[in-house]
Amino acid sequence: MPEETPSLDALRAEIDRIDDEIHDLIVHRATIAAKVRAAKTGGGGGDIFLRPGRETIVLRRLLARHAGAFPRRVLVRLWRELFSAIVSMQGRFSLAVWMPERGAGYIELARNQYGTFTPLSAHQSVGQVVREVAEGRATVGVLPLPRAEDATAWWLHLTSDLPGTPRVVARLPVVETGGLEALAIACLDPEPSGGADRALLCIESGPDASRAAVLDGLREAGFDPVGLMDVRTLESGPRLSLVEVAGFVAPGDERLALATSGPISRLVVIGVHAEPFSARDLDGAP
């Protein structure tokens, strides 16, 4: 006997049951998040509950177990909204976004990463975005990728060793698109994402040190430089280079001390971010 095809009403009833189960699990997840908040507050973790590394670990795990026709890109977007809602439930959460002109695209990047309904302020000055985060008026700042041709190098504001200095915590979008990109900053210590990470190092050297000498010094210390993003020479004399290196680098990494010889006099980790998910990760492309 051929298997009987369920009626449309029966299929809709099954969908309703599944929707109720999903909703119940979201409510339960929110309850667990409240307990996490209590545990973090009791441990003295401050009032910023954003965990960029942990979020990427979760997304990598879900993508690894995913099956079926449901689009992986949509799966990532759903969980990004869920992460943002839970963070906003745990404590203060707001965004400061660089918007030099209408339609620049950075607000859309911020919304895709940090939630459709997260409070957001737009600023025409990159320096103001950094100040909003540093002074606690915003939890996360969204800024353009540093470029040598930019009039203002906002990343110079992140070179202090003082506690509470904003750090780069994410590269946007989390899904590769080949379009506009940005960096997100927050007053958080870097944390690994359980996979491919990139660290941003501010390197101080003499004004006569060549770029090749600086990169060679990093390699000799055990770093794997993948890009020189910007170079600025200060009026006081030193040259500051922003270099992206492969892998996670903690502020106390022993390689930082090893590198401070030859042309390099000082290194500061100004942030770490996970590599965006590639087309292969999301679409199974070769």
UniProtKB/TrEMBL annotation:
Quote the SMART domains the UniProt record gives.
CM_2
Q: Which residues cross the membrane?
A: none
Molecular function GO labels: chorismate mutase activity
> Which one GO biological process term can you cite for this protein?
chorismate metabolic process
EC primary class = isomerase
Q: What is its EC number?
A: 5.4.99.5
Known InterPro entries for this protein? Answer: Chorismate_II_sf (IPR036263), CM_dom_sf (IPR036979), CM_II_prokaryot (IPR002701)
- Which residue ranges does the record assign to the Chorismate mutase domain? 2-94
Recorded coiled-coil stretches = none
* The protein's name: chorismate mutase
Source organism (scientific name): Rhodospirillum rubrum (strain ATCC 11170 / ATH 1.1.1 / DSM 467 / LMG 4362 / NCIMB 8255 / S1)
